[in-house]
UniProtKB/TrEMBL annotation:
Keywords: Lipoprotein, Signal
Domain of life: Bacteria
NCBIfam families reported for this sequence: lipoprot_Omp28
Signal peptide: 1-20
PROSITE patterns xref list: PROKAR_LIPOPROTEIN
Keyword Cytoplasm attached: no
Ion transport found in the keyword field: no
Official protein name in the record: Omp28 family outer membrane lipoprotein
Length: 269
């Protein structure tokens, strides 16, 4: 069961009950309904590049982890850039189509020197050995969540404007929490070097980082136990992006790592 749907249903039922009982004092009415269960979702930040011959192996690892734990529980974002995100010097050393300036800034922030590399809930730093990805996922997915995140989207096809609302409800009080909201796109057919050295121009890239909806390094958010806060953003989608293949990934993180992650489609299915 989707806990956010059950949470919303509980809130609606509570509201209906309260409106039918006019004798209850306004100050005694329950506003916050703490969910019975919140499942921890794990974020994998995959530092990848189109000229990286071993990077498809990382994509395969992510697929296996999603098959094992469920796609809703393992949320991946492919951050394209680094040394293998550009054409060769002979070709002018230009950024390839999936490389972004923001993505490159994350390479610098985290000191990424090898590709593929990844972070699992930003715990343990940058991991270059794919074997460790699975081990860290196994450890992170059993942690107790500290926040509940509910992202919702409203997309206007005519203007290509996307409105994103993110509600964060505290299950514990956190110090130094930040909220990050990203746009990702799936099913992009584009060039990729393969492990055997061949060029695959029909490679399907998934969970590709497109842009940060809020500040690229996240923004401070006040996470207090049994309190909630909402943030609203607007962003125009690039004409080359396909909204039907896009999602919003929202996560809350602290110095101790990513506390919770949620993903929702840009266009309602």
């Amino acid at each position: 069961m989707n806990i956010f749907k059950s949470f919303s249903l509980a809130a609606i039922l509570m509201a209906l009950t309260l409106t039918s009982c006019s004798e209850i004092d306004e100050n005694e009415r329950i506003i916050y309904v703490k969910p019975a269960e919140v499942k921890k979702h794990v974020l994998i930040e995959d530092f990848t590049g189109q000229r990286c011959v071993n990077c498809p192996n990382a994509a395969t690892m992510i697929e296996k982890l999603q098959e094992q734990y469920g796609e809703d529980n393992i949320i991946a974002v492919g951050i394209y850039g680094g040394d293998f995100g550009y054409t060769t010097v002979a070709q002018g050393h230009q950024p390839l189509s999936l490389t972004t300036e923001t993505g490159n800034s994350y390479y610098a922030t985290w000191g990424v020197r090898a590709q593929p590399s990844g972070m699992v809930d930003r715990f343990g730093g940058v991991l270059t050995n794919l074997v460790y990805w699975a081990a860290y996922v196994n450890g992170m997915i059993n942690r107790e969540p500290t926040v509940m995140i509910t992202p919702t989207t409203t997309y206007d096809e005519a203007s290509r404007n996307l409105k994103v609302n993110v509600n964060v409800a505290g299950l514990k009080t956190l110090s130094g929490a930040k909220l990050q909201v990203w746009l990702v796109e799936d099913n992009i057919k584009d060039m990729q070097l393969m492990p055997n050295g061949s060029v695959n121009n029909d490679y399907i890239h998934k969970h590709v980082f497109r842009a940060s909806v809020n500040d690229k390094d996240g923004e401070p958010i006040n996470v207090v136990n049994e309190k909630s806060v909402s943030k609203t953003y607007n962003i125009s989608l690039d004409n080359s992006w396909k909204p039907e293949n896009m999602s919003v990934v929202a996560f809350v993180f602290t110095d101790e790592g990513v506390q919770q992650t949620e993903k929702t489609p840009v266009v309602s299915q």
